[in-house]
User: Fold this.
Amino acid sequence: MDGSVTVEQHSGRTGRGLGRVLVTVYGILAFAATGRSTFVLVTKFSEAPVAYSLSTLAALVYILATVALALGGRGSWRAVAWAAVSVEAVGVVTVGTLSLLDPAAFGESTVWSRYGQGYGFVPLVLPFVGLWWLWRTRPRSADAFPDAKEAV
Assistant:
């Protein structure tokens, strides 16, 4: 290849290349968060309803983000991915900060408590990698790449 950029390289597909790794990590986190939240909702909800509701919300966001990133190049899934990953970023930063300022605020830890410390801080890093990936794979027109018209 002569080094020119083709439109196909910037087709906006989020589930390819590094995106496959991202989707896999989201899927694992969705599975873990769903399992945990289901267990605590069924067995301990009355002990810490806010914490366990937040864990359930996090699990739903991770499921939605996983699907949306896997299908991000199709239809409105890309907008859903942006929304889900943005909600995740705001959630982990907000809950993480509140849980540090007042450890008793939620009664129990959530997926996002202490910035996801219980999950190896993956919940803190993942949304920012996801937002970067969505920006990096954004669809671009052929006009944005003057050489692309000749490469197509």
